[in-house]
Amino acid sequence: MSTSAGRDLELHEWQHLHPLSPFLRFGVAGIAVLGYAATQFVDDIFRSLGGGDSGGDDGTDQGLREGLGVLFDHSLIAGAVLLTVLGVVGLLGWLSWRFAKFRVADGQIEFRKGWIFREHRQVPLERVQAIEISRPLLAQITGLSQVIVQSAGGGDSQLKLAFLSAGRADQVRGELLALAGRRDEAAPARSVGADGVTDDVGAQALDQPRSFGTDEGREVLRVPNSRLFVATILHGGTIFLGVMALLAGSVALAAYGSRFEALTGAAIALPALGPIAFGIAVNRVGELLKHGNFHLADTGTSVRIQHGLTDKRTTTVPLHRIQAVGMVQPLWWRPLGWWRVKVNVAGIAHDSAGDDDDETTVLRVGTLDQALDVLILLDPALSEADLRRAALGDGTDGGWTLVSPRARRFDWLSWRRSGFAVSPHSVMVRAGRLSRRVSVMPHARVQSLTLAQGPLDRRLDLAGVTLVSTPGPVDVMVPHLDLQTATEFLRDEAARARDARQMSRTACTSDDLPSQLVTPDIHDER
After folding, report:
1. Are 164 and 172 spatial neighbours (Cβ–Cβ below 8 Å)?
2. CB distance 363 to 485 below 8 Å
3. Helix 368-378 vs helix 384-392: angle between axes, to the nearest 10 degrees?
4. CB under 8 A, 24+ apart: contacts of 460-466
5. Is residue 398 very low, low, confident or very high in pLDDT (cuts 50, 70, 90)?
6. pLDDT band at residue 510, thresholds of 50, 70 and 90?
7. In whole angstroms, what is the distance from residue 151 CA to residue 153 CA?
8. Segment 315-336 mean pLDDT
9. Which sign does the torsion angle of CA 269, 275, 276, 280 carry?
């Protein structure tokens, strides 16, 4: 166990967070208050030096300034007030730090905080799904990090140890991973000795926990910030705003006749779009700051994702917990040939609101070749040729079964492309002609199957089949199949899934591919 300023306690002992933790947690609010006080202080100094309008039409502002003027006239009083404020802030921070402790004991992580309203959280180690490192902007400045413990559960399934020194955070994360038995999240280091025998350095991981640095693993790819910027701008919201501005200019030109008057009319109309433009800009800038510096690394049994400009975050996705993979290409990315890769991960909650799932997006934006490389990294049993055909092809070539021709009443544009293909390893589904989507689920990951018919489907003798996975952004669903085709697909896939699960239970060895080792863990969704 390494030491720093004092002694790094063992995890089973109650220990404090970093002394600066309270000030970082409330740093933004504190900066805002100090900023306001500083502006008032400077303003009053200039007023006392240069006279001028004492400002304010109400008596409250005038009274406040007269009170501040007393402080300027009496330096001792000003110093006493300042020391009192700093003392109160320091006392509150010390109390917050003093009563915030954590430890790992009796098979669970415990965290206590609060000195007036106390809180005691416990997370069993067997429920831990991932342990991440996050470094917000203020933490980066002070050299601190927070450890985020992801557990199976609902929206309040995170336990944050905010903050620890960067080295201690990496150390705590490594020890927690070892204690939780998460060897899948850290590939054991292997070295070849002089006799040619491969030594497993990680065999003693429980006795000698490793330090898991943020740069661990083999880097697979980086997403240039310039590409991410363009992809962020090429979004439905910004395109909608551009179309609205173009329509406003066209209406103004038609109404006023001349270009100058049209520009004047459009400028008058622009404030109406101001709130919409502001909201879209905030959303796009937030995504750019959150996902900048995106790069993906391979540790052998997991992929490690690092991203963030102001809030640097490291996320680990174990390969054996991936239940389904998919890639999407929005319409506005098609001229550039860009794709996004997402996954369903057992035990990781999915935010149905949209795009900001850190644990389920393994490639923010990349070329088709990069997307295929990532998919094959996630599951080496997949075929690059089959994935490429699914992404770009249509028709029945390559063993594809399409939706019924009667489905053109529902989707007249892409019914010749939508369908499924079956391989010995997985089911592949494709959909969309303008915005393309490809989903893949191994047979061993299928938890259940659903055949559904709506009123129009029943009238046209159609049905849809859904392969149920863990919650996530990847939907493996084939709508509007011929009823007989859907029934046969449902029956055959149920048999394939049963056989695949049985094979994975009885025929796995330590040399098998990680993605083929573990069947879906139903307990992770409880």
Report:
1. yes
2. no
3. 130
4. 460/404, 460/406, 460/409, 461/406, 462/404, 462/406, 462/407, 462/486, 463/487, 465/489, 465/490, 465/493
5. confident
6. very low
7. 6
8. 91
9. positive
* Distance, CA of 24 to CA of 381 (rounded, Å): 46
Tell whether omega for the bond before 229 is within 30 degrees of 0, i.e. cis. Answer: no
Express each pLDDT in 409-439 by its tens digit.
888 888 889 999 999 999 999 999 899 999 9
- Predicted local distance difference test score (pLDDT) of residue 362: 93
Answer whether 0.90 is exceeded by the pTM: no
Amino acid at 130: A
CB contact set of 285 (below 8 Å; sequence gap of 6+): none
Can you list the pairs that 492-497 forms with residues at least 24 positions away whose Cβ atoms lie under 8 Å? 492/422, 493/422, 493/427, 493/443, 493/446, 493/449, 493/465, 493/467, 494/449, 496/422, 496/443, 497/443, 497/444, 497/446, 497/449
Helix, strand or coil, per DSSP, at residue 209: coil
> DSSP of 440-485, one letter per residue?
EEEGGG--EEEEE--HHHHHHTEEEEEEE-SSSS--EEEEEEEHHH
Q: Which tokens belong to 95?
A: 């109390």
Strand order in the sheet with 119-124: 15-16, 101-105, 108-113, 119-124
- Backbone torsions φ then ψ of 238, nearest 5 degrees: -70, -35
Annotate 329-353 with b (16+ C-beta within 10 A) or e (fewer): bbebbeeeebbbbbbbbbbbbbeee
pLDDT at 290 (0 to 100):
85
223 contacts 366 by C-beta, under 8 angstroms: yes
Whole-Å CA distances, 80 to 30, 38, 44, 74, 87: 20, 17, 19, 10, 10
| DSSP state at residue 158 | E
Q: How far apart are CA 423 and CA 271, in angstroms?
A: 55
| Cα distance between residue 363 and residue 342, in whole Å | 7
Burial 227-240 (b: 16+ CB within 10 A, else e): bbeebbebbeebee
Percentage of the chain exceeding pLDDT 90:
31
The 3-state DSSP class for residue 434 equals coil
Residues 109-141: b if buried by 16+ CB within 10 A, e if exposed: bbbebeeeeeeeeebebebbbbbbbbbbebbee
**Sequence letter at residue 389:** R
Considering Cα of 377, then 382, then 388, then 390, what sign does the dihedral take? negative
Beta strands 190-192 and 401-402 are unpaired
Q: In what order do the strands lie in the sheet with 462-468?
A: 448-452, 462-468, 476-482
Per the document, the length of the chain is: 526
- Average pLDDT for the chain: 77
Query: Alpha helix locations (H) across 131-212?
Result: 137-142, 166-179
CB neighbourhood size of 249 (10 A): 18
Amino acid at 514: P
Residue entry with tokens 């200039």: 46
**In 3D, which of 169, 135, 128 has the Cα closest to residue 150?**
128
